[in-house]
Amino acid sequence: MKNDMKQINHHLTDALLMGYSAGTLPEAFNLVVSSHISLCDECRARMHEFDAVGGAIMLDQGSVPVGEGAFAATMALINDGKWDTPTSTQAKKDATFPQPLLDYIGGDMSKVKWRKLGGGVCQAILPTTKDATARLLKIPAGAAVPDHGHRGTELTLVLQGAFEDESDRFNAGDIEVANEDMVHQPIAKEGVDCICLTATDAPLQFSGLIPRVAQRVFRI
Amino acid sequence: MCMLTEIDIHATTDARSSTAAHAVATRDNRAKDQKVIVNELSKRTEWVDEIYAIRDTQDSAAFAKLFSHFAPRVKAFLMKGGSSPEFSEECVQDVMATLWRKAHMFDPTKASVSTWIFTIARNRKIDMIRKQRRPEPEELPWGHQEEPSAADVMALSQETGQLARAIAALPDKQRLIIERAYFGDLSHSEIAEETGLPLGTIKSRIRLALDRLRHAMT
Predict the structure, then answer these.
(1) Considering CB atoms only, which of A27, A57, A92 is closest to B182?
(2) Domain positions in chain B
(3) Which chain A residues are within 8 Å of B121, Cβ to Cβ?
(4) Are A28 and A203 in contact (CB under 8 A)?
(5) Which of A176, A185, B130, B196 could hold A156 in an S-S bridge, CB 3.0 to 4.6 Å?
């Protein structure tokens, strides 16, 4: 919930929210979804709905007895105190960028290691599991991201500035969900550089003959 | 799903006297199933007190009550999702221990106890099976420092009950697809493969089911 955030017009789909709630999305998608929810009260409320559906379904599956020693074992777990340090209440570090993203960057936006893609566009790939790729994109005001299609689903969350493509205009906080049929050419609006957080399904698995380094190049 | 809800108090009260509380819900016994669900509901706000007792006085008797109610249910849910009995047993212990540790973070105006336990189980499973981080939305700044009002807690509890009834009342095909989605480990396309239905049909079933649920909640 950001006071400085303009009204959000493009939201998460039910399928994505259900996948996030069920826990079946790739980590990179979870990052974009949780970042959008951090900025969007409407999708936060919908997330709670989907969690409630999950809770109701969980209770509707009957019961299977736990082992005889289960309660004692659980109390032992509680008493041995070997907890991961509880995540301290998240202190807001940044006024513009959502906390889940900052956690992946490991600090504020100055910690981002941008790499040039050409045409003034920069990207930074964030560390997630390989089933999908999360990246930050910085597009100079007025510039275009190279024309691209998608193999699977591409999520694009605008963090700063705005962009426009064939379908619509996307402002800070808006999320675009593009599928494989869509070939689009986002153009950053004039004013400030446009910074987006994106997630794409991983490219096809490469055979073991292709070294990781080459794979990294192909991901661009 | 809006907060303004009409609740069938009579149904809840009747069910409270039912002895079906510990009956295993089965698909081929819908009537009993419904009764169990409704009976669960009447207990929802009580569970809130048990969580508070753990948070405030490390009350292991309260924890034992929660454990005997929820642990077998969480285990059934995990096994329905394809987890082995051994894994499910380990995960359940972990989930219940996490409940104790995070009792101070429970907010009964945000989630019912069952919803909260579901999210803990989901996160533990992602952690244990998929070995991946689970990014969570940032917490909203706290608007209140005091205990949430009983009215707010009750409103959420009633809404949760209504949702459970709405899910139970869904046509089988719609309910099963939603269940499959929540059992985990199956993406939409995998569900399509399992059932031999085209993806479009799955998606429209889920949409239909959600539309029905929303309708039932307004």
Answers:
(1) A57
(2) 172-218
(3) 58
(4) no
(5) A176
pTM of the model: 0.78
| Domain assignment present for A2 | no
pLDDT in tens, A1-24: 444 456 899 999 877 888 899 988
Say if B208 is an interface residue toward chain A (CB within 8 Å).
no
- Amino acid identity, position A1: M
CATH of the domain at A192: 2.60.120.10
Report the alpha-carbon distance of residue B27 to residue A62 in Å, rounded: 10
Nearest neighbour of B163 by CB, restricted to A30, A56, A71: A56
Which B positions 161-200 lie with beta carbon below 8 A of chain A? 163-164, 167-168, 178-179, 181-188
For residue A74, is it within any domain? no
Residues of B within 8 A of A44 (CB-CB) are 137, 140
Query: Which of B123, B138, B179, B208 would you mutate first to test chain A, the one with the most A CBs within 10 A?
Result: B138
Q: Looking at per-residue confidence, does B112 or B216 come out higher?
A: B112
Give me the CATH topology for the region B172-218.
Arc Repressor Mutant, subunit A (1.10.10)
Task: Map tokens 């809770």 to a residue.
Answer: A55
Look at the block and give the residue holding tokens 């429970």.
B106
How many folded domains does chain A comprise?
A: 1
Classify burial at A117, counting beta carbons within 10 Å of its beta carbon; exposed 0-12, middle 13-18, buried 19 or more: middle
CA angle B198, B212, B123 (to 5 degrees): 75
Q: Please provide the DSSP assignment of A63-132 as one string.
A: --PPPTTHHHHHHHHHHT--PPPPPPPPPP--SSS-HHHHHHHTSSGGG---EEEETTEEEEEE---TTE
Is A7 domain-assigned?
A: no
Q: Which helix (H) or strand (E) holds A164?
A: strand A162-164
Residue A30 lies in a domain: yes
Q: What is the pLDDT of residues B94-141, one digit of tens each?
A: 999 999 999 999 988 888 899 999 999 999 988 887 777 888 888 776
From the list B93, B112, B126, which residue is nearest A74 (CB)?
B93
Task: Write out the residue range of the structural domain in which residue A97 sits.
Answer: 14-61+92-218
Summarize the confidence of residues A65-79 as an average pLDDT: 93
